[in-house]
Write a structure and sequence with these properties.
- With about 160 residues, the chain is α/β, with parallel strands linked by helices.
- It is built from 5 helices and 4 strands.
- The chain has helices at about 20-35, 55-65, 80-85, 90-100, 135-155, and strands at about 5-10, 40-45, 85-90, 110.
- The radius of gyration is 14 Å and the shape is globular.
- The structure holds 4-nitrophenyl phosphate (4NP).
- 4-nitrophenyl phosphate binds near residues 12, 13, 47, 127 and 129.
Length: about 160
């Protein structure tokens, strides 16, 4: 039987800014590399369940060729810890929250997203929600760098 695709879940607080941008960046990079991955995103909070990404996130992703307008917010669920190979937190608070929720026999590897990027281990992807549009460009640069590193890791 064929092995299933590697599966990756991105997690931030609201699931309307950073993690949907990370999802869009990795979908784009994996497509470009011809790599089949299962990719999703979620929030630790319940603030934006069912909501589309923030308009600034949608516009910034579109400027870089990624369409994330169809994504909808959801909260991390217990089943995610069994379904995904890799769960990547966008900052330390999200990482701590994920570790609190994970059971001792959790299947997923849980890590900080920027740990994937050479020279950037331990760094957070700053929350752009309360700032201007330029913060979203910084977010895109970070998640695009991580997406490239993930494609390399999974063999694209
Ligand atoms: P995200 O950004 O975690 O990158 O989706 C935020 C979105 C919403 C809120 C905070 C951060 N909020 O407080 O509603």
């Amino acid at each position: 039987m064929a092995r299933s695709n590697p599966s990756i879940l991105f997690v931030c607080l609201g699931n309307i800014c950073r993690s949907p941008m990370a999802e869009g960046a990795l979908r784009q990079a994996a497509d470009a590399a011809g790599l089949a991955l299962t990719i999703d995103s979620a929030g630790t909070s319940a603030y934006h369940i069912g909501s589309p990404p923030d308009g600034r996130a949608i516009r910034t992703a579109a400027l870089h060729g990624a369409n994330i307008a169809g994504l909808r917010g959801r909260q991390v669920a217990a089943a995610d810890f069994e379904r995904f190979d890799l769960i990547l937190a966008l900052d330390e608070a999200n990482l701590a929250d994920l570790r609190d929720r994970a059971s001792a026999d959790c299947r997923a590897e849980i890590a900080l997203l920027m740990d994937c990027v050479p020279g950037r281990a331990g760094e957070a992807v700053a929350d752009p929600y309360y700032g201007g549009e330029e913060g979203f460009e910084e977010t895109w640069a970070d998640v695009a760098a991580a997406a490239q590193a993930l494609v390399k890791r999974f063999g694209g």
